[in-house]
Specification:
The protein is α/β, with parallel strands linked by helices. It is 31% helix and 27% strand. The strands form 7 sheets. A 4-stranded mixed sheet has the order 24-25-1-26. It has a 4-stranded mixed sheet with strand order 2-17-19-18. A hairpin with a 2-residue loop joins strand 4 and strand 5. The termini are close together.
Length: 439
Amino acid sequence: MAAQGGGALSRKAGALSGAAPAPGDKSISHRALIFGALARGTSHITGLLEGDDVLRTAAAMRALGAEVERAGGVWRVDGAPWRTPDQVLYFANSGTGARLVMGAVAGAGIGAGFAGDASLCGRPMGRVLEPLGMMGVVAKSHGGRLPVEILAGGDLTAVKCVLAKPSAQVKSAILLAALGANGVTQIHEPVLCRDHTERMLAAFGVKLGIKDDGEVGRILSLAGGQTLTPTDVSVPGDPSSAAFLAAAALITPGSEITITNVLVNPLRFYQTVREMGGDVSFENERTESGEPVADICVRHSVLHGIETPAERAPSMIDEYPILAIVAAYAHGETMMRGLEELRVKESDRIASVEAGLAACGVDVASGEDWLRVRGQGQAPKGGARVKTNHDHRIAMSFLTMGLASNEPVEIDDASMIATSFPEFFQLVSRLGGEIIARQ
C-alpha cells in the first residue's frame, strides 16, 4: 500500500486472471455495528470491512456504551443502553457513519457531539437534522454542516415525511430515530434507494411495514418503542469496491476474473455494464443475512455507449466514477443523468472525473446533474497526473484506468483508499495488474 500522503501510478501489465474476494460491504458494515450496539445482548459480525470509515463507527459505538472487540476475524458487539459520550464523536471522512449515528443517538434519547475532517465538514447534514428536528430533536450545527451537537433526543414524536431527495443515509437516520419515537413514523420514498437498513432491521427483529405503492414509490412504517434482538451478521463483499476489479477486467484485453462473495442488491453497476455489452455473469447465487450474494465472473468485452436513466442514480451513485472510466473505453457516447448527489460527496465527483478524463485525452463534458463521456472503442491515451481531491473513489477509478490506457496514469494521493478498500493494491496485484506506490 502507498505510504500515507503518497501517490501511486498504474500501467499496463497484461491480462488479468484469477479470483479475488471483494472487501466487506461498507454500508452493511456500518449498520451491523450500529444495530449490534443498540441490541440487548451479543451479536457477532463476520466479513466486516476494516477500513478507516467503519473503524470510526466502531469507536463511536464504544464511546456510546457498547463493547466492540475483534477476535480472530470475528467482531463481537455487546449492546447496552447508550449513554452520552465523554468526548465528541469523530467520524473523519465517513458521511454514512455520522448521519446514521445522529439518528440513532436521537432515538436513544441522549446528546452527543459530531465532528469530522475538512472534507466531511463540507458535506450537508441539514438533510438529516431537518427531519430529526420535526421529531423533536434539538441540535446545533454550523449552517447545516459539521460540527453538530445533538442537545436532546428522547420524547420524540413520530412524523410522516417525504424524502425530497433519494438518500439511504437520510432514510436510515429517520428510521433509527423512529425506534425511540412515540407513535408510527411513516417515510414516503418516491424514488427508491438502497434498502440495507430495512433488511437489517428485520434481521434484528424489528417490525417494519413496507408498502410498494405503484407509481408513487414506497411507504415505510415503523412503530416506536421496539427493541432490537441481537443476531449474527455475515457481511457480503461490497459491490462498489468490486466494481473497480470488474471494470479492470472489462477494459483490459484477454482478462477473465472472478470476484467472490459479492452483494448483488441491487444489480447497479453490473446491470449497466451488461447493457454496454459487458460479459458479466453471476455464479453460486445465494442469500446471506437477508441479502442476495453471488460470485461475479467478468471477461474483457467490446463495449458501446448507452444512456443511463436518472432513476437508476440513487441505487448506484457511488459507481458512476468507475462507470465513467469504463465509458472512456467504449465505442460511442455514454450519457449519465441524475447525478446531482455526486456534487456533494467526498469531492465534487462530477468535476473530479471530468478533469481527470480530460487530462487523459478523453472527450468528456458535464452539467449540474449529468456527465457525458465519448469513447473511441479503444484504450484512451492516459498519461496524466490526476488530482484526487482526497476522494477514494476518484483515486481507485483512475488507477483502474491506467491498467489499460496507452500511457500510465498517476494519482496525487492514495492514502484515502484505506477508508473503503484497504486491500486494493494487493488484490489488483494478485490478479496481474501493476500499481506502483509513489512517495
